[in-house]
């Protein structure tokens, strides 16, 4: 069991006040706060060790390269990948998905070829496939969710047709908190020769991920949700799929030799990492993964499950609050609307005056909002550093909102 007081002490920002109130940070689904060890690692990387990587023989370049490349193995271990060579490091999930879209899908999609998506995908896992629809005639096939926000894996499997080449699916909805049975989907897809890309942005921070056990072809994560810096992340690519890919970007590091009449590419994964990378960002992500691993993913999941259950019970007592998504086993994330005239933006502003940070809007999930029949929601997303007292603070503030907007 985690000592949450000690966990919270790792985050200097949690000791500050906002609008004269103690900060209650419930927007980790957008971006998590950073523990002191990450901040210190970033500071040290810039103040003591900084240099470009891969390209120098001097001491600082060697240190930076060693620290940077160590993160590849940390990401591989964190995701349960068999080899660090299956990890392409990048700026986050958006770049990872686009790498697959440009490097794997575009060379092999023909007009009429299909991509299966769930209705609750983040725009980062929709827009690149619309590019294929616009430019190459790909067809997007949408799978709806149940009334409680759950996604039946069989519905995804049933959407596979003779022209389906890719399933692009979230592991955990960034709006509903729904956890998808991606393993069942991947098993069926593999039997049918269909590739599966998983958006792991939300899931990887809340639960143990084992890509080998899941059986996916691609699994993308983003560092700023993993208590690491923005501009960091990586994507797992199954070796067979990596061999099928062409480079997405061209530049330094991804080549062995450049001549007037041609080029020779570097070996994967370097083949897909062009230019000077986010050196310090990735080193900071490595520190964040070490910090999470030391806490234990099972311990993190247990604490967040307690918060989820407590928040679910507390919000259920407010009959003027409508929570979107109540699927069993969901993450500690609650998108909701209030009866009356309170727009989610107004609700967020009132909560902010009480020191409570939440997200308001469509959460980069336009198709899901249309499906739910709402223009926007307010979202409270919990992390390992949150407490039951902060759930109580949210509920108290919502009572105020009800009084103001009823």
Automatic annotation (TrEMBL):
Please give the InterPro entries that the UniProt record associates with this protein. Aminotrans_V_dom (IPR000192), Aminotrans_V_PyrdxlP_BS (IPR020578), Cys_dSase_SufS (IPR010970), PyrdxlP-dep_Trfase (IPR015424), PyrdxlP-dep_Trfase_major (IPR015421), PyrdxlP-dep_Trfase_small (IPR015422)
Catalytic reaction equation(s): (sulfur carrier)-H + L-cysteine = (sulfur carrier)-SH + L-alanine
What Enzyme Commission number(s) does the record list for this chain?
2.8.1.7
**GO BP terms, alphabetized:** cysteine metabolic process
Start and end of every Aminotransferase class V domain?
Answer: 24-394
The answer to whether keyword Transferase applies is yes
Cofactors demanded by this protein: pyridoxal 5'-phosphate
Top-rank EC class of the record's enzyme: transferase
What biological function has been recorded for the protein in this entry? Catalyzes the removal of elemental sulfur and selenium atoms from L-cysteine, L-cystine, L-selenocysteine, and L-selenocystine to produce L-alanine.
Q: List the protein's name.
A: Cysteine desulfurase
């Amino acid at each position: 069991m985690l000592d949450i007081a000690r966990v919270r002490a790792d985050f200097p920002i949690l000791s500050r006040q906002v609008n004269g109130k103690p900060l209650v940070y419930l927007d980790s689904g957008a971006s998590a706060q950073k523990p002191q060890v990450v901040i210190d690692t970033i500071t040290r990387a810039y103040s003591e060790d900084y240099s470009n990587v891969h390209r120098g023989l001097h001491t600082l370049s060697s240190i930076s390269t060693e620290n940077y490349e160590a993160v590849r193995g940390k990401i591989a271990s964190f995701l349960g990948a068999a080899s660090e060579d299956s990890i392409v490091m990048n700026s986050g999930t958006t770049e990872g998905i686009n790498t697959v879209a440009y490097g794997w899908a575009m060379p092999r999609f023909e007009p009429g070829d299909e991509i299966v998506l769930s209705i609750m995908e983040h725009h980062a896992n929709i827009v690149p496939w619309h590019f294929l629809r616009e430019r190459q005639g790909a067809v997007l096939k949408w799978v709806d969710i149940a009334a409680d926000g759950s996604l039946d894996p069989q519905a995804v499997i049933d959407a596979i047709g003779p022209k389906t080449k890719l399933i692009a699916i979230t592991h955990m909805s960034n709006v509903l908190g729904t956890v998808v049975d991606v393993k069942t989907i991947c098993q069926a897809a593999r039997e049918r020769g269909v590739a599966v890309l998983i958006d792991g942005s939300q899931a990887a921070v809340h639960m143990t991920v084992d890509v080998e056990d899941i059986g996916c072809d691609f699994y993308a994560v983003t560092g700023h949700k993993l208590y690491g810096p923005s501009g960091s992340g990586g994507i797992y690519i199954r070796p067979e799929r990596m061999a099928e890919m062409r480079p997405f970007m061209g530049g330094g590091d991804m080549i062995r030799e450049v001549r007037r009449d041609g080029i020779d590419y570097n070996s994967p994964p370097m083949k897909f990492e062009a230019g000077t990378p986010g050196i310090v960002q990735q080193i900071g992500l490595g520190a964040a993964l070490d910090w999470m691993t030391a806490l234990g993913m099972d311990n993190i999941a247990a604490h967040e499950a307690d918060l989820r259950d407590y928040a679910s019970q507390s919000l259920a007592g407010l009959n003027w609050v409508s929570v979107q998504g109540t699927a069993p086993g969901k993450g500690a994330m609650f998108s909701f609307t209030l009866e009356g005239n309170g727009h989610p933006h107004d609700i967020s502003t009132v909560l902010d005056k009480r020191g409570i940070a939440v997200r308001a809007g469509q959460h980069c999930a336009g198709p899901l909002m249309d499906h739910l029949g709402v223009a926007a929601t307010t979202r409270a997303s919990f992390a390992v550093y949150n407490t039951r007292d902060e759930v109580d603070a949210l509920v108290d503030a919502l009572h105020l909102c009800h009084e103001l907007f009823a």
